[in-house]
Amino acid sequence: MALSRVCWARSAVWGSAVTPGHFVTRRLQLGRSGLAWGAPRSSKLHLSPKADVKNLMSYVVTKTKAINGKYHRFLGRHFPRFYVLYTIFMKGLQMLWADAKKARRIKTNMWKHNIKFHQLPYREMEHLRQFRQDVTKCLFLGIISIPPFANYLVFLLMYLFPRQLLIRHFWTPKQQTDFLDIYHAFRKQSHPEIISYLEKVIPLISDAGLRWRLTDLCTKRGTHPAIHDILALRECFSNHPLGMNQLQALHVKALSRAMLLTSYLPPPLLRHRLKTHTTVIHQLDKALAKLGIGQLTAQEVKSACYLRGLNSTHIGEDRCRTWLGEWLQISCSLKAELSLLLHNVVLLSTNYLGTRR
Asked: Which pTM does this prediction carry?
């Protein structure tokens, strides 16, 4: 009896180890059928669709704009003066960045198609010229901000001297008008000096008729010169004594101030810079004549007149277009007489509208 119990217990132990129990068997059956444990998992990793990524990005952008709007309203309520400066600065950065991208696109197109500067359309030529001028002015700020902790001083200097250190993108509308008036006052100071230099060289002109014409042009007071009066002097300004290479050093410095160029360089460098600047204006004139003044906006017309010596900030658009047409008629009639085109900045703008502007 005892032996049979031992054998029964041993067989029960080994049997339980070999034969699966009711729970294990039921689990395997349900696992195969998929009823208790759900559908079988896919072997591929599930990724987020593109629509979800776009929705996430749209949500981030929306929240960023909302936070930025709240920040702007906070500045506008509590710091109104700082908010005006902040808005102008941010818009200026955006405009400067847009100008840089456009200039890069123009330069890339020039490189791909082997196009020279003078072959560009007028607006592209003017954009490159203005962008180079803006970058040159910004380089000074970049240089003085190189030393450690100098950027704090740079911000203070920009606030105190916006006309000298900042470009037009960072000026308020009132500052743009005021600063243009100041710059024109600077170049207008050199006009009497240039006229006096022209009067001094009159005896050096061999032709009596040319001497009389130049004397009459220099002695006119309050009278706007006619186009044919200026073009009649082409011979005087192509060779001695008023050719570009024959001008005296003081005369060259006065012309540099009239073109808003620095006059603190050696005379050879000043002469070269005046030649380059006048050549660019002559090329712009040819491109503008091809485009037509009627295609320009009011702001483009005023900017073109100001570049050529006329203070257009207080002159109507129609008068500016008339004056610009006279300038183009003279400029397109010239070939190598760059000196006459350079002096035309003074001769054609000094007595315009019966006043010495």
From this structure: 0.77
